[in-house]
Design a protein that fits this description.
By secondary structure, the chain is mainly beta. The protein has one helix and five strands; from the N terminus they run βββαββ. The strands form two sheets. It has a three-stranded antiparallel β-sheet with strand order 1-2-3. It has a two-stranded antiparallel ribbon with strand order 4-5.
Length: 78
């Protein structure tokens, strides 16, 4: 799949603690965190990656490209 065809996250939902719980993709799909994690790991979502946190869990984060405007925390709510 070419990079231009990969989906991106364009919006997010957060819980009361401010943690990301759902993502909306550029094609309009809504993924819960676990679905999003699986899709990021499989390489079908562009601009993000998965890392193992200090809590031992896997987490999604934006690629480190030096541009703070595309960080996941900057995504609009939906």
């Amino acid at each position: 799949m070419m990079n231009s065809e990969r989906e991106r996250f364009i919006a997010a939902q957060r819980n009361g603690d401010g943690d990301l719980t759902k993502f909306q993709t550029s094609s309009g799909r809504v993924l819960d965190y676990q679905q999003a994690l699986q899709e990021v790991q499989s390489g079908s979502i562009a601009g993000v990656n998965v890392f193992k946190g200090k809590d031992g869990e896997m987490h999604i984060r934006g690629d480190a490209d030096g541009d703070p405007t595309n960080n996941l925390d900057q995504l609009p709510q939906f």
